[in-house]
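Hey team,

Sharing the Polycomb group ring finger 5a run so nobody has to redo it. Sequence (235 residues) first:
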Amino acid sequence: MATQRTPLVKDFNHFITCYLCRGYLIKPTTVTECLHTFCKSCIIQHFEDSNDCPKCGIQVHETNPLEMLRLDNTLEEIIFKLVPGLRDKEEQQEINFWRKNKSKENGQGDCLGSRLGLSDDEDGDEDGQDYHRSDPQIAICLDCLHNNGHAADDTVKCLMKKFLRCSSRVTVGTIKKFLSLKLKLSSSCELDVLCNGEIMGKDHTLEFIYMTRWRLHGDNTYPMVLEYRPRIDFG
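Structure output:
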């Protein structure tokens, strides 16, 4: 009786490697229109120049293909189990990346990263073990909502990159600080953050907003859209 060969990792490479970079899928992200999966960073970079799937050529979205992406956490866990040491390697590379780049934006990179669960300074343990990786993650889109005729509109601009992925425990207050730093706003310029036209409290978490404002109002699109605007003074 022939002995059955034990499957090797390379036997599954077709299913767990990225079509774009040819490496193992990191943060595997699926295009919902055709169900092809790529590394998150690879497909986002591809969509900067094209609205088509790089594998099959189908048009993913006419204007914003990022709306048609879904992170596949189950596949990510399978890959980490199949490939020994891959999880530790990727986590260390990401930590090194943020350490190297945290000072880029006028010295504010460390604050921006740590507030959104990306850095290792403010919210992590001293030994560098906690980087919000155990938190549920959520994707959001930050859109600028202008108030017609208000002078403050001139100081509040649209973000260059409005799509973010961060811990679901991040609060509206943290989002406001992130926006103030990114947009280089003065301390006197206050912002409101809205979901479906309703101003959100500074202590609301993204998870709370998603469960009580976004999902329950029939908005099943992804990511969750939050709007920001200069605070209106009714005095």
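The first strand starts at residue 28 and ends at 31.

Ping me if you want the raw files.
A.
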